Amino acid sequence: MSSPRLRVLPHLLLALFLTFAGTYQASAQDAQAVSKEGVTPGATDGAAPATGGGDAAAISAGDALFKGNCAQCHAVNDKVVGPALAGVEKRRPISWLIPWVKNSSKVVASGDAYAVKLFNEYQKQQMPSFALTDKEITSIFAYVKSAEGGTKQAETPGGVTTENSPKADEGGAAKYVDILLIVLVVVLIVLVVTLVIIGNLMRDVLRGRKDLNGRDVEVLEQRTDWSKIYRSPVLRGIVGTVFALVLLYEGVQQVMAVGLTQGYQPTQPIAFSHKLHAGEHQINCAYCHTSVYKSKSANIPSANICMNCHSQIKTESPEIKKIYRAIERKQPVQWVRIHNLPDLAYFNHSQHTQVGGLECQTCHGPIEKMDVVYQYSALTMGWCINCHRETPLNTKGNGYYDALVKLHDSKNAGAPFTVSSNGGTECSKCHY
């Protein structure tokens, strides 16, 4: 009568373990649904435009222009390199602001009292001239007006809006998953210890009984013979097979990884932090990599771009002094290249960023969170081809695609028109 009680202990432990594992998996999935790492194309499509009046299209256009041209030195509600722009149309009329944005030096040289005062107030730092149309400048100030007095938020270069707080991405359901995990682990340990104590007590009680039959005594006094298990040919065969498979798997992985540099993170000559510049200060990628939307390659920033800000900011920093020395010696900063495709493969940045509308994070990962940049994606041929097979093309309003889409739909009803549908997986697209 005792053996069934003793045999139930392993089943209880197994049930507890499965319950714990299932609960944790469900909680982890909930947390993952709330907070995801990285940015995917189109993740912010359909996001509501900023509130506060003005035409929604103009505000949206102004938002993009502000981030690409103004955000390096200005914020709407805070003073950065230049003054906060909130209420700027109350201080100066739009007829004054347009020529100021186009060529502030000309306005200062004209002797305008407000322009001269502003120029002197900010240590005579020259604001760059911008080749923008009147409509574009007006849309920028429409965006500024819509964002005045709003909740402080930081928008990363990938377009994901988050609270401007160092703890923003640590909140949500993730912290509750950690707490739940700790509680479940503690409860499981307590239950295991309790069951072990109960099992030992039951053995002590049963040993003192006189009515046990031979089977009960055998179960009660049984011990695990580990030497038999160790010498078992079945166990040795299983262990040997697993070991051989692990060695084979690792060998294949090492061979397949020849020539791959995913995770490559070299030390740069200057400790430049993308997390600080692109993340906290929200400097648009195109401000430094000026050719990313219009050239085959994303250029390495020149020292002059750094000096646009660092001629006034952190001038005594040892890292900034390295830029000064490079300029004095008339030598470029020797940045170490991280993303390097083989010469046999053709890749065009502008085709992907300007035409395809891809965000930088699609290939480079959460660049705005990296203190030291590393190669985030594999950048292999298979990785590129999978992207071409899965990424749909935006063909609306482009007559070039009309016949192709019609032909595609007639033979592939219901299937999306992807880059692959347009010949994006043909060898000659990248190798010629």
UniProtKB/TrEMBL annotation:
<protein>
    <submittedName>
        <fullName>Cytochrome c3 family protein</fullName>
    </submittedName>
</protein>
<feature type="signal peptide">
    <location>
        <begin position="1"/>
        <end position="28"/>
    </location>
</feature>
<dbReference type="InterPro" id="IPR009056">
    <property type="entry name" value="Cyt_c-like_dom"/>
</dbReference>
<keyword id="KW-1133">Transmembrane helix</keyword>
<dbReference type="InterPro" id="IPR036909">
    <property type="entry name" value="Cyt_c-like_dom_sf"/>
</dbReference>
<keyword id="KW-0479">Metal-binding</keyword>
<dbReference type="Pfam" id="PF14522">
    <property type="entry name" value="Cytochrome_C7"/>
</dbReference>
<feature type="transmembrane region" description="Helical">
    <location>
        <begin position="233"/>
        <end position="252"/>
    </location>
</feature>
<keyword id="KW-0408">Iron</keyword>
<keyword id="KW-0349">Heme</keyword>
<keyword id="KW-0732">Signal</keyword>
<keyword id="KW-0472">Membrane</keyword>
<dbReference type="InterPro" id="IPR029467">
    <property type="entry name" value="Cyt_c7-like"/>
</dbReference>
<dbReference type="Pfam" id="PF00034">
    <property type="entry name" value="Cytochrom_C"/>
</dbReference>
<keyword id="KW-0812">Transmembrane</keyword>
<feature type="domain" description="Cytochrome c">
    <location>
        <begin position="57"/>
        <end position="148"/>
    </location>
</feature>
<dbReference type="InterPro" id="IPR036280">
    <property type="entry name" value="Multihaem_cyt_sf"/>
</dbReference>
<feature type="transmembrane region" description="Helical">
    <location>
        <begin position="179"/>
        <end position="202"/>
    </location>
</feature>
